[in-house]
Amino acid sequence: MITETKSKLRISLIEYDVVWEDAKANHQYLDELLLNHKSDIVLLPEMFASGFSMSVDKIGEKPFGPTFEWMQQKANLMNCAIAGSVSTLEGNKYYNRFYFVSPNNGIYIYDKKHLFSYGKEAEVYSAGDKIVTIDYKGWKIRPIVCYDLRFPVWIRNTEENPYDLLLCNASWPKARREAWISLLKARSIENMSYVAGVNRKGIDGYNLEYKGDSHLFDTLGDDLVMINNHPEILQFEIDKEKQDKTRLHFNFLNDRDSFYFG
């Protein structure tokens, strides 16, 4: 089988007001929002089908449940990858599970490593313990979820397990928006990688406000300019050849420490 490779990818960051604890309503809204949209990767916020809720008895789904099935259908219909996290029950444990679903059953799974104890996530969910690297169209992609962004050692771009693009989906409140933006930029600079961060908008069931603030930073920490004009679909184009040339010229990664999580 021949795997398609692309030097340039279009990435769409979908920031919207997630309907609280109502997967069907969110699926329907996204169906309408994404109608006729063209992209290579569509990145959705953390727990995009429910909001960042601790009520797992209401929102928890079985592995490869209804929201995963919706993602799979959407990936095939749009001919692109769909990525986002879902409250998932496996065995007797709940996980904040990131799915990356591409057409023709290309599936990657990452369970959020760092649980947000301040928001009681660690009391309800279990932490993942595995780094995942996605191979997609000639790119190596590293997924993380929200609070993981604060822990740079976990997401270090290492020689043993390198990546070209970091995907972070989040429910990051307005009160800490400056930290969100600063951390996205810092991760791009220290790892010399594109970093895409998507965040929700609106007010959730805990009365927390979100302002979106989705961004895509390049290899040197510059904020990329959108290639479209839409309030909820922020689309960018990234260029692997350009990134490779930048890394070759500014070969800072050659001086990195040799520690490795794997």
TrEMBL record:
SUPFAM superfamilies registered for this protein in UniProt = Carbon-nitrogen hydrolase
Q: What EC number(s) does this enzyme carry?
A: 3.5.1.3
Q: Fetch the InterPro entries from UniProt.
A: C-N_Hydrolase, C-N_Hydrolase_sf, Omega-amidase_YafV
Whether Transferase counts among this entry's keywords is no
What Gene Ontology molecular function terms does this protein carry?
2-oxoglutaramate amidase activity; omega-amidase activity
UniProt keyword annotation of Transcription present: no
Q: Where is the CN hydrolase domain?
A: 9-240
Q: Which domain of life is it from?
A: Bacteria
Q: Which reaction does it catalyse?
A: a monoamide of a dicarboxylate + H2O = a dicarboxylate + NH4(+)
Keywords for the protein's UniProt record, in alphabetical order: Hydrolase
Q: Which PANTHER family match?
A: OMEGA-AMIDASE YAFV
Similarity remark: Belongs to the carbon-nitrogen hydrolase superfamily. NIT1/NIT2 family.
Q: What is this protein called?
A: Omega-amidase YafV
Q: Which organism is it from?
A: Faecalibacter rhinopitheci
